[in-house]
Amino acid sequence: MQTLTNGVLTVEINEVGAELWSIRKGKTEYLWHGEPEYWNRRSPVLFPIVGSVWEARYRVDGKEYTMGQHGFARDMEFQVVAKAGDSIRFRLESSEETLKAYPYPFTLEIGYRLEGSGIEVSWEVGNPADKDMHFQIGAHPAFLYPDYGKLEKGRGYFTFDRCGGLECVGLAGKGCADATKRYPLPLSDGRLKLNSDTFDDIDTFVLQDSQVKKVAMFCEDGTPWLSVTFDAPVLGLWSPPGKNAPFVCIEPWFGRCDRAGFEGEFKDRDWMNSLASGERFNASYRIEIA
């Protein structure tokens, strides 16, 4: 476990998955603690896929591979390659093990930097091979509700940097999407109310096409709690349906699950990223604690 502090925030990161493990401001914890009853993750990185491939199978140059939801990076041990008092950088490289599941050599670096009451999370994906590489990457941080009482309904609310006309992609089961179905994000006065049952019927709100770039979370009384700012083209909002869980996830994605029934080539999946030999992909997002 690695710890960063800057006098405002204290952050812990697990070397397994280079995963955020704790965000504290003073004595207040903001990140979910991974209790298995609800969800045993905290803030995994999603790589080399976001979501699921159809029937857990995908094809590269006609050869079939299997991969579980969100890929394998979240379960692998990263190496610390740089650390200062308020920043750290982790690295994962392809190996004989990863090439059996994902036939592309790669490098993946994940960085964390504290700045005031904010955490800048950065990703760098590199292609060291002599052929094109195809991948997705995303974040899955789970934030504690500011107003959680197991017997109470209210959990606060989200606001967005766009107040109306937001549209979600339908889900079709087996962790995949029905991209032909769209429905409006159910806002009221520009807010998405967070209740004990907000996610029970929908599971995940998936907004694509860069509709929003910032999500802010507020307490029931309107007190700011935190925000997430990003450049990713796809956003997922999720809390375990039917569990009355104490947390909600704000997930910037450079990728998305397969369309239901998709059996084409891996490179042709929706929201795929590609790197030519020697190229690098860089992206980041920021968590700001109120």
How are the strands of the largest sheet arranged? 8-9-10-11-25-21-20-15-18
Low-confidence stretches: none
Q: Regarding CATH, which class?
A: Mainly Beta
**Principal-axis shape:** globular
Structural class, judged by helices and strands?
mainly beta
What's the alpha carbon Rg, rounded to whole Å?
Answer: 19 Å
* Average pLDDT rating: 96
The oligomeric state of the chains shown is single chain
Separate helix tally: 1
Count the strands? 25
* End-to-end separation: 25 Å
Q: How many independent structural domains?
A: 1
Helix-residue proportion:
under 10%
CATH fold group = Beta-galactosidase, Chain A, domain 5
CATH-scheme architecture? Distorted Sandwich
Strand content: over 45%
Largest sheet: 9 strands, antiparallel
User: H/E order of the elements?
Assistant: EEEEEEEEEHEEEEEEEEEEEEEEEE
Structure description:
With 290 residues, the protein is mainly β. It has a single domain, classed as Distorted Sandwich (Beta-galactosidase, Chain A, domain 5), CATH 2.70.98.10. 2% of the residues lie in helices and 48% in strands. Strands 8-9-10-11-25-21-20-15-18 form a nine-stranded antiparallel sheet, with no helix packed on it. The radius of gyration is 19 Å and the shape is globular. It starts with a strand and ends with a strand. 36% of the residues are buried. The mean pLDDT is 96.
Features:
single chain, 290 residues, mainly beta, Beta-galactosidase, Chain A, domain 5, six-stranded antiparallel β-sheet, 1 helix
